[in-house]
C-alpha cells in the first residue's frame, strides 16, 4: 500500500507575500571625459591650455591718488553713503539749532562725507 501525502489546509490568516514595486530607474548620465593622465597612458598627448595674454607696458596706470579714491568709493554702497550724509546733515542742523536751510545742511554734509570717503 502506498501512502498518500498529507493534505494541509492553508491558514486563511497567513499573509500572502506582496510584491513591492521596483524603484524608478535613474536617468543615464553622459559619460565624463577621461582625465589627461588616462589619455596620456594611451599615447595621445593631453591638450594644453592657451597662455594668458600679457599686459603691454604701454598701458599707463592711474595715479595712486585716483586709485585710492576709486577703491574707497567702491567699498561703500549708495545706501550706506546716503545714511552717512543723512546723519551728518542732522548734526550740522543740530549745531545751528535746527533753524536755517535744510538743503544747505544736506549739501554741506554731502561734501564732508565725500571728502572723508575720498581721502
Give an account of the 3D structure.
- By secondary structure, the protein is mostly helical.
- The chain has a domain at 77-119.
- Helix content is 44%, strand content 0%.
- It contains four helices and no strands.
- It has helices at residues 36-41, 64-74, 78-95, 102-118.
- Helix 3 crosses helix 4 (102-118).
- It is elongated and about 130 Å long.
- The chain starts with 35 loop residues before the first helix and ends with a helix.
- 3% of the residues are buried.
Give the termini distance in whole angstroms.
118 Å
Judged by helices, strands and strand pairing, the structural class is mainly alpha
* Rg over alpha carbons: 40 Å
Task: Summarize the helix and strand pattern as letters.
Answer: HHHH
List the uncertain runs: none
Largest sheet: none
Global shape? elongated
Range of strand content = under 5%
Total number of helices:
4
Got a strand count? 0
Helical proportion, percent range: 40-55%
Average pLDDT number: 75
Amino acid at each position: 500500500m502506498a501512502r498518500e501525502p498529507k493534505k494541509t489546509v492553508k491558514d486563511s490568516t497567513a499573509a500572502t507575500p506582496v510584491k513591492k514595486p521596483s524603484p524608478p530607474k535613474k536617468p543615464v548620465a553622459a559619460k565624463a571625459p577621461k582625465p589627461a593622465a588616462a589619455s596620456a597612458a594611451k599615447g595621445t598627448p593631453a591638450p594644453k591650455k592657451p597662455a594668458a595674454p600679457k599686459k603691454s607696458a604701454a598701458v599707463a596706470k592711474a595715479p595712486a591718488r585716483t586709485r585710492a579714491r576709486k577703491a574707497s568709493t567702491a567699498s561703500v554702497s549708495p545706501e550706506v553713503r546716503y545714511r552717512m550724509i543723512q546723519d551728518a546733515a542732522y548734526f550740522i542742523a543740530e549745531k545751528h539749532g535746527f533753524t536755517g536751510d535744510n538743503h544747505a545742511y544736506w549739501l554741506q554734509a554731502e561734501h564732508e562725507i565725500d571728502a572723508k570717503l575720498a581721502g
